[in-house]
Design goal:
251 residues; alpha/beta; six-stranded mixed β-sheet; four-stranded antiparallel β-sheet; 10 strands
């Protein structure tokens, strides 16, 4: 089976700063891949390059058979990037909900405006995903009346509302108070059980150990080690992985 995500020889510069170094990564359909590593290792940048929120400096990104090379320019490329983004759902550290819209309005905004979906159909779809994240009761509330965990669950429902081929999570619990983290992780675990393809940047090692099919270690813009959680957490091969995990356990 071909990979649903294929990143080939990706480089990213911010000015003279070389943030990603010849990164190649594949994600299989229904696979949960967790990217871990210390802050500044390039994890979030890699995720943002996959859906072109950041422009790669070199290399190719392919999602669900749609391939875009960093070097391409012009109108056709812009359309390819647009189509590729429709195949990815992104959940950020911050929730980025529209404060002037209700929960259901936030969830249906993209399907209606980007995919030209009929509003009635979008509402039915949005309600389905609000039910999935346990927030149908908050359907008509405004974001200001929600907890941080509830806002992030709405953000997940909003991303699911576009019916993407792969979900990208960029440290989705890092902005939450500790007592709210669990409710978001439970939603993500449920998505994993249902076979949702997920690429997750996280510092939640318990989640990575319990839910990931594969854990990928990043260090200074490179992928230095990857494998099943049992191998990465139980018998890491790269000394830099060992140091990172020892520091995490000691913190």
């Amino acid at each position: 089976m071909p990979p649903i995500v294929k990143v080939s020889h990706l480089d990213k510069y911010f000015g003279r700063l070389h943030v990603l170094h010849d990164v190649s990564l594949e994600v299989q359909p229904q696979e949960v891949v967790c990217l871990i590593g210390r802050s500044g290792s390039g994890k979030s940048t890699l995720l943002r390059c996959i859906n072109f929120l950041e422009e790669p400096s070199a290399g190719t990104v392919e999602v669900d058979g749609l391939s875009v090379a960093a070097e391409w320019k012009g109108r056709q490329r812009r359309q390819l990037v647009h189509d590729l983004r429709l195949r990815t759902g992104m959940v950020f550290q911050e929730f980025n909900l529209f404060p002037h819209m209700t929960v259901i309005e936030n969830v249906i905004e993209a399907p209606v405006t980007v995919k030209n979906m009929e509003k009635d159909k979008a509402i039915a779809l949005g309600e389905k995903f609000l039910e999935k994240v346990g927030l149908m009761a908050k359907r008509d509330e405004y974001p200001a009346r929600l907890s941080g965990g509830q806002k992030q669950r709405v953000a997940i429902a909003r991303a699911l509302g576009m019916e993407p081929k792969v979900m990208l999570f960029d440290e989705p619990t890092s902005a939450l108070d500790p007592e709210l983290i669990g409710e978001v992780l439970e939603v993500m675990k449920a998505l994993a059980r249902e076979g949702t393809t997920m690429l997750v940047v996280t510092h939640e090692m318990g989640f990575a150990r319990d839910v990931a099919d594969r854990v990928v270690i990043m260090y200074e813009g490179e992928l230095i080690e990857q494998g099943p959680p049992s191998q990465i957490f139980g018998a890491p091969q790269d000394p830099r992985t060992k140091v990172f995990l020892e520091r995490y356990r000691a913190s």
